[in-house]
Amino acid sequence: MEEQLPYRNLSRGEERRLIQRAADAVMSDFPNPERLGCPESTALIAIAQGRLSSPESEDIIDHIATCSPCFLEYRQHRRRHRMRVIAKMALASAAGLILIAVLWRFGPAYVGHRQPPMAKEMVITPLSATLDFRNRTVARSESAEPYNQDVPHLTRVLVNLAIKLPVGVEDGLYQVELRTRSNKTVLSSAGTASWHEGAETLTTTLDCRRVTPGEYTFAIRKGTSAWRLYPVIFD
């Protein structure tokens, strides 16, 4: 009994070599210099572009497989068609990438009045404010100094805050807390202090839009040192 070898799929390289050998055989074994029985070029182009249905194309395909000139012409039309398809796909991909880049960069401008309300909050520009605590007595207990007419006032907005601190405060990273008079923390952030324009200045950003109007205390400290407390009023 003859032993049967197991079947396997051809690799891409083997498949290409098989097709090429078949094409070479058609080119050499089926000359038709008189072009007897050859279809018109329009039919060959239609088949190369996949525009003929099976019943219409079967006889023509059989002829191409046994006619060297028709096979050569068909192969040329097929290559041109594939190049046009590849070019269209490349243009479509490039157009898609350009559209994505435009929407990424200018998307909100195109949405116009349909822009969701929350998107408008995302582009709010912080205001700038300065608090000068250089001449204030530093309170290091859980309650700040009594409030008086000299206590600075702030508006309840998103604010880039520059806090000028008393002499002796060191450069570095600081914790910043906004507390109520009952010592409840309302906001917290971090800031960096450095010498700027003749004063040790701590810069930080606070979103004070939801702060209730009233009297508060700024609590500031570096690392684990004692808190420095300064009064402030939000209008």
Topology:
Layout: H1 12-29, H2 41-48, H3 54-64, H4 68-111, H5 117-122, E1 127-132, E2 153-154, E3 158-165, E4 172-180, E5 185-196, E6 199-207, E7 214-221, E8 228-234
Parallel strand pairs: 1-3, 2-8
Antiparallel strand pairs: 3-6, 4-5, 4-7, 5-6, 7-8
Helix pairs in contact: 1-4, 2-4
Summarize the structure.
With 235 residues, the protein is of the alpha+beta class. It has helices at residues 12-29, 41-48, 54-64, 68-111, 117-122; strands at residues 127-132, 153-154, 158-165, 172-180, 185-196, 199-207, 214-221, 228-234. It contains 5 helices and 8 strands, in the order αααααββββββββ.
Outline? rod-shaped
- Rounded to the nearest angstrom, the radius of gyration is 40 Å
Question: How many domains, in number, for the residues?
Answer: 2
Give the proportion of residues in helices.
25-40%
Mean pLDDT: 78
Terminal CA distance reads: 102 Å
Largest sheet: 8 strands, mixed
Kindly state the number of beta strands.
8
Strand content: 25-35%
**Given the structure, what is the number of helices?**
5
Structural class: alpha+beta
What report would you give on this structure?
The mean pLDDT is 78. The N and C termini lie far apart (102 Å). Helix 2 packs across helix 4. With 235 residues, this protein is an alpha+beta fold. Strands 1-3-6-5-4-7-8-2 form an eight-stranded mixed β-sheet, with no helix packed on it. Helix content is 37%, strand content 26%. It has two domains: 8-115, no CATH class; 127-234, Immunoglobulin-like (Sandwich), CATH 2.60.40. The chain is built from five helices and eight strands, in the order αααααββββββββ. Strand 4 (172-180) and strand 5 form a beta hairpin.
